[in-house]
Design goal:
The structure holds 2 protein chains of 2 kinds. By secondary structure, chain A is of the alpha/beta class. In chain A, 47% of the residues lie in helices and 14% in strands. Chain A folds into 2 domains: 132 residues, Spore Coat Polysaccharide Biosynthesis Protein SpsA, Chain A (Alpha-Beta Complex), CATH 3.90.550; 105 residues, no CATH class. In chain A, α5 runs parallel beside α7. In chain B, β11 and β12 form a beta hairpin. The chains are: A alpha/beta, B alpha/beta.
């Protein structure tokens, strides 16, 4: 059975990259080519040079873990036309929610999506395996924009206050965590231009504004405005939260997968049963119905 | 199937001042419930509970545990009851957010309770600080526990300072010894499995936002410290008389007469002194035992619990599969064993890859398939299983006796097993002697 390492792959690169990025991509995914995240022409050219039906897409700043190479995508889902996504873990907060993970596309679908985003494959399913790290925290700008983007995502969804508190509180012991927190909280204040805000903050810091004071003020402002209980965790305690939390994906990931499998014939029903049971051993009877 | 509401259920209290409230709560949900109160010794208490229940099975509820209504609609398969298994439902600790056996609801077969000799009743020369029911059954069979991954209860062991301290202390001792009874010696705390170590860390760190949470943390830290940094006899935790003395003569004296007051007992203590001692004890645990504990603020403790829930002990599916594979208490059933190992593999349980590999190697699930076995052993080895390298080495030796490369590979694998703690060929001992 083919593993993810055997597929053609495209790893998107940001202008700067996390340390060891190229080495880790090449070790884990020997067939992957590196293409700038902003260069659509080069991406399409790379895609056209490939021969396989499927292509593994690694978003920018996503580093594969060792076990990723052993993952075999389920043909039942692929034959049903699903794009398969896997989970990447946020290097600062440890969260698994809305992180850009590896994606296995039908090459033609990916091409279509790159030519016209409206025509992309909308049938995607997340597999409950944590196979990569979302390692944006190698410089202030990617950390700021990552935090900013995540907050913008959460603002579009209901019942996200716990995720907001976690994103603004966890991870203080990691490099550039302050910039993640800053970007995240500024986005919560209602701004929608990450790069403009980043430039403003950077200029402010250069002019003598203190990061910790800025974060403190923002925390107070957001807690009052949104009724959140953000309490930035002390650096020494942040490691505890990372090791203790998010070792397994949310029950909703399993529920959605089970719902996707259920109508896919005998093999699909068997897989649904297996995953239902797997979820039950982690989350108990909570893991029963699709998240809708 | 037997539905839990049709089984006898018994509330066990001893000296808990809130016990009447919790008993009333249970009675409102299960009017047929019975109660035993004031029975000294945990072994004796369970025997009394069986008697009070009046049936061949009994569900026990600890005095600090509130049962959720959902429990009374749970079905327990006959096969577990008929074959004498204890069926356990983990409980959620409201102080530190942990979900495990502390305060769990348990459905006991009467025969097991009658035959077990645990805690204060353990045979002379045998150590028991838990219901390590396999080790202390007169029949001497392996531990017949069935873990059900469903939470139907909430435990609050910190309703008074004394009870919080006592529970924390017992958990500190038990968890730092590997979580089970029957231990004859102290284990190196650094050799705890990662999940056990994480739980111990959490019990030592979370809960300052809760009433008496500092006492629970202090008890846990002190229990670990006294077990591993002194020659104190840890089996004392079976004796509530010893606890009474320890509390009254030492702990209460040390922290008493402050401004904090227990709402149940009126006991007064100095909360700042307790907090300072907790921090100092945490530093000692780190310095002397290499155990890292964290001094979380109340807000951090609240956030920890809010960012849960705690997943259950998902790797228990593997132990359950092993019971079916080997016919331990349950009727041997390779198909069900295989299904449970498949679940474990989906959840990344290293032991399940190893068990699937063994099944393929030995033909327990269809014809012998050594290629598949090697592939699965490889996964188990990479995932960190301690048995897999040994079995894989043996298989490589059997398959390729004349291949020098494979023999070298087998040798490295055997060493890897030994380093991970499974050394049936005494490689490490031989090496040390040679050195």
């Amino acid at each position: 059975m083919k593993t993810l390492a055997d597929f053609d792959g495209i790893a998107l690169t940001a202008p700067e990259q996390p340390r060891g990025f190229k080495l880790r991509i090449h070790n884990a995914l020997p067939k992957a080519v590196l293409v700038a995240a902003k260069d659509r022409t080069a991406q399409l050219a790379a895609l056209d040079e490939m021969t396989g039906a499927y292509v593994l897409l690694m978003p920018a700043d996503v580093l594969p873990r060792e076990d990723m190479t052993r993952i075999s995508p389920d043909p039942v889902l692929l034959e049903a036309g699903y794009r398969l996504d896997w989970l990447a873990q946020n290097k600062v907060t440890g969260q698994l929610d809305a992180t850009p993970g590896p994606q296995l596309w039908l090459r033609a679908e990916l091409r279509k999506s790159w030519m016209d985003e409206k025509k992309g494959n909308s049938k995607a399913i997340v597999m409950p395996n944590i196979v990569a790290d979302w390692a944006f925290n190698y410089a202030s700008r990617p950390a700021f924009t990552a935090g900013f983007g995540y907050a913008s995502h959460l603002l579009l969804h209901p019942d996200t206050h716990i995720k907001m508190m976690v994103a603004a509180s966890f991870g203080g012991d990691q490099t550039y965590a302050d910039w993640w927190h800053l970007g995240f909280m500024i986005s919560l204040t209602g701004s929608n231009d990450a790069l403009f805000e980043y430039a403003q903050e950077k200029a402010g810091m250069t002019a003598g504004l203190k990061m910790q004071e800025r974060l403190h003020d923002l925390t107070r402002q957001i807690n009052a405005a949104l009724g959140l209980g953000i309490s930035r965790i002390e650096k020494t305690n942040a490691a505890f939260f990372r090791t203790q939390r998010f070792s397994k994906p949310d029950a909703s990931i399993y529920c959605d997968l089970i719902a996707a499998y259920a109508p896919l014939g005998k093999a699909g029903r068997a897989a649904a049963d297996h995953w239902r049971e797997a979820a039950r051993w982690i989350w108990g009877f909570e893991a029963n119905s699709p998240s809708g | 199937m037997v539905i839990t509401r049709d089984l006898p259920i018994v509330f066990m209290s001893y000296d808990e001042p809130w016990a009447d409230e919790y008993w009333a709560d249970l009675l409102a949900k299960a009017p047929h419930a019975k109660r035993v109160h004031g029975v000294l010794g945990l072994d004796a208490c369970h025997k009394a509970a069986l008697k009070a229940g009046g049936g061949e099975f009994v569900i026990t509820v600890d005095a600090d545990t509130l049962v959720r209504p959902s429990f009374f609609a749970v079905d327990i398969p006959d096969e577990f009851l008929e074959r004498g298994c204890r069926v356990e439902f983990p409980s959620q600790n409201v102080v530190n957010g942990q979900t495990y056996g502390n305060g769990s609801l348990k459905c006991w077969p009467g025969k097991m309770i009658r035959e077990m000799r645990t805690h204060e009743a353990s045979p002379k020369g045998k150590v028991s600080i838990d219901h390590a029911i396999g080790a202390h059954m007169s029949s001497g069979k392996a531990s017949p526990r069935v873990h059900v991954p469903e939470v139907h209860s909430d435990v609050n062991p910190a309703l008074t300072p004394y009870h919080a301290f006592r529970c924390g202390f017992r958990e500190g001792v038990r968890l730092s010894l590997g979580g089970g009874g029957g231990m004859h010696h102290r284990v190196d705390i650094r050799s705890l499995r990662p999940r056990q170590a994480r739980r111990l860390e959490a019990c030592c760190s979370v809960g300052t936002d809760s009433e008496n949470g500092d006492w629970l943390i202090y008890g846990t830290r002190l229990g670990i410290f006294m077990t591993h940094a002194s020659d104190w006899d840890f089996t004392q935790i079976n004796s509530y008389t010893w606890f009474d003395d320890f509390w009254n003569k030492l702990i209460a004296q040390r922290f008493g007469q402050g401004s904090a007051t227990c709402r149940y007992t009126g006991f007064k203590w100095d909360s700042l002194r307790l907090e300072a001692e907790n921090i100092a004890l945490g530093a000692q645990l780190h310095k002397m035992l290499g155990l890292t504990v964290y001094n979380l603020s109340a807000a951090e403790s609240r956030l920890f619990k809010a960012s849960g829930p705690e997943p259950m002990d998902w790797w228990m599916s593997d132990s359950f599969g092993f019971m079916f594979l080997k016919g331990l208490t349950l009727k041997p059933d390779h198909k069900r064993a295989r299904a449970l190992f498949d679940i474990g593999a989906l959840n990344g349980v290293a032991g399940s890859y190893n068990n699937l590999a063994r099944m393929a190697e030995l033909g327990h699930d269809g014809p012998i398939n050594t290629d598949k076995a090697l592939e699965l052993f490889e996964k188990a080895v990479t995932a960190g299983d301690k048995f897999a390298p040994h079995h894989m080495a043996n298989l490589l030796r059997a398959l390729y006796p004349d291949d020098e490369f494979q023999m070298m590979r087998a040798e490295s694998l055997a060493w890897l097993s030994a380093e991970r703690g499974f050394d049936p060929d005494s490689l490490l001992t031989t090496f040390e002697v040679a050195e």
